[in-house]
Design goal:
Oligomer: heterodimer
Strand content of chain A: under 5%
Number of helices of chain A: 14
Structural class of chain B: mainly alpha
Mean pLDDT of chain A: 80
CATH class of chain B: Mainly Alpha
Order of helices and strands of chain A: HHHHHHHHHHHHHH
Membrane topology (chain B): Multi-pass membrane protein
Pfam family, one (chain B): FecCD
Distance between the termini of chain B: 25 Å
Shape of chain A: globular
Distance between the termini of chain A: 31 Å
Number of strands of chain B: 0
Largest sheet of chain A: none
Mean pLDDT of chain B: 81
CATH topology of chain B: ABC transporter involved in vitamin B12 uptake, BtuC
Family (chain B): Belongs to the binding-protein-dependent transport system permease family. FecCD subfamily.
Number of domains of chain B: 1
Low-confidence stretches of chain B: none
Helix content of chain A: over 70%
Largest interface: A-B, 54 and 53 residues
InterPro entries (chain B): ABC_BtuC-like, ABC_transptr_permease_BtuC
Order of helices and strands of chain B: HHHHHHHHHHHHHH
Largest sheet of chain B: none
Radius of gyration of chain B: 21 Å
CATH architecture of chain B: Orthogonal Bundle
Radius of gyration of chain A: 21 Å
CATH superfamily of chain B: ABC transporter involved in vitamin B12 uptake, BtuC
Strand content of chain B: under 5%
Organism (chain B): Lysinibacillus louembei
């Protein structure tokens, strides 16, 4: 009866959502410009544009292309990866608390790094570029362990069991890390702690290259599964009724989510709050449909981490605050505000 | 009164699913086990002391004997500290799980641990060399800060303090305070000192600490037992509890105060030993059913037992070095928790 009314309404929603996504892109660009303009040597927006088109002097080129730009790109990519990972986890587990941190993926990566530092006590001598690989292996293994432990024949994986298992495994890994922590030398401890707190330390193009393929493959894959995520969100019984082969879909999505988080964490360390807060914000802005939720989460995540890294670099110059800490300090109060304002 | 009818039905269901006889047996076994563990813990160590000597030292103290001195001044406060802390964590966990109806609720979740860590970071950074006693006090205050923020935001919200909101607020406040503490720790390079404090366990417990903490802890535990019936009703769901004539707001506030005292004091002594509050209530719920009168009293005993044993193992596994007690409990706790998770994890 009111079919036409509905579609008109939906169209309006759609337009609104596109505007929101566009605004987020613009905000990222603005932050990019601000980020270029902060630091020991500042580049004005005009200089940035000139340098981008090959008109800057050698020093400007060096700063832009070798230091600032890779770091900015990494910050945005990491934020996207973590946020989408969180959005997918929240979708498949139907648990608003799910994020890569809760599922022990950060902890797994952290343990791998910690072991590495323990075996190569001098961080300077050790091949540091191996860290992302190790972190990735750590988080992947953790995910496999969690999946295996929470898998039951005939029942598959229930969201609750997945979260419970994740929490338990994460706690186990954390305690193993405490034991290792106490044996580290103070310098190595500082390095590990900074890494774990989520600092964008791998700031050159090599790390961009190690991260980018994961996002190029996994983000479109996840996006293509938006409809499945919408269905999974409706709840088990409805989903079975609609004919989605839940277990298989969930396994693929979980793997994709781990891949995204693992790759991101390997470059940035444990930036924990993005996976929780970005999807929540996105849901406030564009609603629960994953066709919009996923891109909005990605953009918000990218914006959040870029903003955090920019602030962290400039607030206590010349020492840096890890982006992960700034993310939490920025994100948590806003999240609390949302929580207090929201009706259940 | 449809609500009441449903409530009564739930209540009957609950009574069917609670096992008082099992609970009494578990309680007796637990107390005997605890006594034995305490004796064992006192008599083993760098200087082995016979159980008979332990008995004498406690009930027939003579200050000339070195063994008696060791027992009185080092081992006894330590083992009592472990027992108190264990009970406190376990009872706090049980109350939180019952009140929030969330099987994952523990002190880490409500911002307690992060608050304590944050305050300790401030103390270590700005007031280095603060005496142990003051550190405990500040860490306690930090735990309180965490809870007050979480609880405040939860109750300021439209629609009140739902379990989900509480948990979300807890996660956010933990992230915030945790990040601030971490930032301070990194900037002032005191992270490892904090880690040592947190891994320190109960080894530094002295009579003077116990004197300050134990009245609070004992009062809070008695309060928990008094409140336990109401918590059972609350665990059936807010509406049902109201339908059965409970003043849920009052119960929640008292519950929170008790949790704050218990977990705050425990965190300030041993650091973030999260698994006790998570695992012991699960275990006891599995044994005694869903009546919180039994869950809380059994948690009290088994929490103490768990931490006393863990401390005992931590001291002796790699003597003369001590293993971090939190890590040790996790080694016992994780497999057990995984087993519970496999069994369903929805028994609340």
């Amino acid at each position: 009866m009111n079919n036409r009314f509905l579609t008109a309404n939906q169209q309006k929603m759609k337009r609104k959502n596109f505007i929101i996504l566009g605004t987020l892109v613009v905000l990222i660009l603005i932050t990019f410009v601000i980020s270029m303009n902060t630091g020991v040597i500042k580049l004005t927006p005009l200089e940035v544009i000139r340098t981008l088109f090959g008109q800057g002097d050698a020093q400007q080129q060096l700063i832009l292309f070798e230091f600032r730009l890779p770091r900015i790109v990494i910050a945005v990519l990491v934020g996207m990866g973590l946020a989408v990972s969180g959005a997918v986890l929240q979708g498949i587990s139907r648990n608003a608390l799910a994020d890569p941190g809760i599922l022990g993926i950060n902890a797994g990566a952290g343990l791998a790094v910690m072991l590495f530092i323990s075996f190569f006590p001098s961080t300077k001598a050790a091949p540091v570029y191996l860290l992302p690989v190790l972190a990735f292996i750590g988080s992947g293994l953790t995910a496999i362990i969690i999946y295996t432990l929470s898998y039951k024949r005939h029942e598959g994986i229930t969201p609750m069991r997945l979260i419970l298992t994740g929490v338990a495994v994460a706690a186990g890994i954390s305690s193993a890390m405490i034991v290792l922590t106490l044996r580290l030398t103070p310098e190595n401890y500082q390095f590990v702690a900074t890494w774990l707190a989520g600092s964008i330390w791998g700031s050159n193009w090599r790390f961009v290259l190690s991260l980018l393929p994961w996002l190029i493959v996994l983000l479109p894959f996840v996006y293509a599964k938006s409809r499945v995520l919408n269905i999974l969100n409706l709840g088990e019984i409805t989903a079975v009724g609609l004919g989605a082969s839940i277990e298989k879909e969930r396994r693929w999505l979980l793997a994709a989510s781990v891949g995204l988080a693992g790759a991101s964490v390997s470059v940035s360390g444990g930036i924990g709050f993005v996976g929780l807060v970005a999807p929540h914000l996105a849901r406030q802005l564009v609603g629960a449909k994953h066709q919009f939720l996923l891109p909005a989460s990605a953009l918000l995540g990218g914006l959040l981490v870029l903003l955090a890294d920019t602030i962290g670099r400039s607030i206590l110059e010349p020492s840096e605050i890890p982006a992960g800490i700034v993310v939490a300090v920025l994100g948590a109060p806003y999240f609390l505000y949302l929580l207090a304002r929201l009706k259940e | 009164m449809a609500m009441s009818a449903e409530g009564l039905e739930k209540l009957q269901e609950l009574q069917r699913r609670s096992y008082p006889i099992r609970a009494i047996v578990a309680l007796i076994i637990g107390i005997i086990g605890l006594m034995f563990a305490i004796g064992l813990s006192i008599s083993f160590g760098a200087a082995d002391i016979s159980l008979g000597m332990v008995w004498q030292a406690v009930f027939n103290f003579s200050s000339e004997l070195t063994e008696h001195q060791i027992i009185r001044e080092i081992r006894l406060p330590r083992v009592l500290g472990a027992a108190l802390v264990g009970s406190a964590f376990a009872v706090a966990g049980a109350i939180m799980q019952g009140m929030t109806r969330n099987p994952l609720a523990d002190s880490g979740l409500l911002g307690l641990n992060a608050g304590a860590a944050f305050m300790l970071a401030i103390c270590f950074a700005f007031f280095p060399g603060l005496p142990y006693m003051y550190l405990i006090m500040w860490s306690f205050a930090g735990a309180g800060l965490g809870v007050v923020i979480v609880y405040g935001i939860g109750s300021l919200s439209k629609g009140g303090l739902t379990p989900m909101r509480l948990v979300l607020a807890g996660a956010a406040v933990s992230a915030l305070l945790g990040a601030l503490g971490e930032g301070i720790a990194l900037h002032y390079r005191i992270g490892q000192d904090l880690a040592f404090w947190y891994a320190g366990g109960v080894s530094g417990t002295k009579w003077s600490h116990l004197q300050i903490l134990s009245p609070w802890l004992l009062a809070a535990m008695i309060g928990a037992l008094i409140l336990s019936r109401s918590i059972t009703l609350l665990s059936l769901g807010e509406e049902i509890a109201i339908g059965l004539g409970q003043r849920t707001g009052v119960i929640k506030i008292w519950g929170m105060i008790i949790v704050l005292i218990l977990a705050g004091a425990a965190v300030s002594v041993v650091g973030a030993v999260g698994f006790v509050g998570l695992i012991v209530p699960h275990l006891t719920r599995y044994i005694v059913g869903h009546d919180y009168r039994w869950i809380i009293s059994c948690s009290l005993v088994y929490g103490a037992l768990l931490v006393v044993l863990a401390d005992f193992i931590a001291r002796n596994i790699n003597a003369p070095y001590e293993a971090p007690i939190g890590a040790l409990i996790a080694f016992i706790g994780v497999p057990f928790f995984l087993y519970l998770a496999r069994k369903g994890g929805k028994e609340l």
